[in-house]
Amino acid sequence: MTAESTVPSPGGQPREYGSSPVSVIPPRGAADGFRLSAGQRPSVRRTSRLPLLAVDGGAALLAGLALTQTQRQPLLVVALVLGVVWLNAHASLYRAEPVPAVLDELPAVCARIAVAWCVPAGLLAALFPSAALSARTLAIGCVLQSAASCAGRGTLHWRRRRALVLRPSAALVIGPAATAQRVAAAFLRHPACGVRPVGIVADQATGGDGLPVLTTGEEVQRALIQNSVRAVLVVKSGGERGPLLRALAEAGCAVWEVDADSPSYDSGQHGQLAGFSCRQLSAPRRHGSIVKRLLDVAVSGTLLLLVSPLLLVCAVVLRLSDGPGVVFRQERIGKDGRPFTLLKFRTHRPVDAHEAATRWSVANEREMSRFCHFLRRSSLDELLQLWNVFWGDMSLVGPRPERPYFVGKFSQTYPGYAARHRMQTGITGLAQIHGLRGDTSIEDRCRFDNAYIDNWSLWQDICILLRTAAALVRPTGS
């Protein structure tokens, strides 16, 4: 959580105040002039999850029927099948990887099979001791199911890798021409990754060998249709390319951000293509967003009712101790680069609006009143953001929103910063519960925020909220 005003910002040279924020994929309706005509969208190859679900369910059914010989066998087999499928789905083992390999999944698959056997077997032993499974039966069941599941997964992955080589996805590479040509050449040298670049999208055409350089929306659209482009590789994201990325994503293309210079991302969490660390730029699934929004409305509405007397007391005391202007309003950047007005209790008065928008943290803290110190150290000044959550400008959990000046600056300096705007910003987040508040590393915040988005789940949100509530008993300010 950032402060309101007056110490120069860390790292890098600032851009001119008032510059537009950087957004990876902006909202619909962005003024870009590039739209795919109806009926001209390329056919998109979807990877179904059903084969992997069938393999895991079939392996569990096979092992359960082969080794459970009790009167309650059907219930145990059903629990085994449902348990292993749920555990694998929760671990994203049905999410399509760029280049799948069964050895990468082996530890996760086997560990979840062991859990799926031990938990129902333990309950069965506790409730019906006479029907308890022996340790030998449990061990054989785990080994049998692991072997069947891994064999089935290995076969499916081999067929998919073969299909990727025989029928690679046509791709466009977006970024500076020289870097994009280098990335495209690397992909062409490694056909096993299943991506075949067919063109470069850059601001200016360059001479020399390499793929054709597309500089206009008409050229991009023509290449998209003629080559049935299914993937987009973004070498360097920026606000000027945001509308184009939105149009390509709406056309059904998978948009990947490729780190062409350094391994900034954890390949175990995201993946590698042609040796480059990569990250798919996509927000949580629609049904997940709906559930997250329902949680936000329910929790923020309940908390507003409960803490409204506290908010009134804070406002009255702040008015009496520091004069008028109790509420601090400041423009922040939210999901897809949309600006909104963030609300806080005012604990410091910047010299002017320019200083408030372009200074990083609070200087001269000794000049603040004792009550303002208390509000900041206890994070009570942030409670008004519950209104932002209730109105839909923010979420309870998500990357912390920042001012336009710093969004533009950090997006140029730190790889992956712009990708934080794939999700609604929040009051707290994974970075905050790991101590990344105030004057801490922006690079570390980027990494934690993107890891949260890439691995989002409702349970993760609940855990972050619980850890945030626990941290309030030892406040450190914002």
Describe the structure.
The protein has a seven-stranded mixed beta sheet. It is an alpha/beta fold and 478 residues long. The chain is flat and about 75 Å long. It folds into three domains: 50-165, no CATH class; 168-280, Rossmann fold; 286-471, no CATH class. The protein contains 15 helices and eleven strands. The longest helix is centred in the middle third of the chain and has 37 residues, at 286-322. Strand 6 and strand 7 (276-280) form a beta hairpin.
- Span from first to last CA? 5 Å
Q: What Rg do the Cα atoms give?
A: 26 Å
Q: Which segments are poorly predicted (pLDDT under 50) over 5 or more consecutive residues?
A: 1-34, 37-44, 263-269
Give the helices and strands as they follow along the chain: HHHHEHEEHEHEEEHEEHHHEHEHHH
Report the mean per-residue pLDDT as an integer. Answer: 77
Q: Count the DSSP helices.
A: 15
Overall shape: flat
Class based on secondary structure composition and strand pairing: alpha/beta
Number of domains: 3
**What portion of residues is helical?**
40-55%
Strand content: 5-15%
Strands in their spatial order, largest beta sheet: 3-2-1-4-5-7-6
What does the largest sheet look like? 7 strands, mixed
What is the number of E strands?
Answer: 11
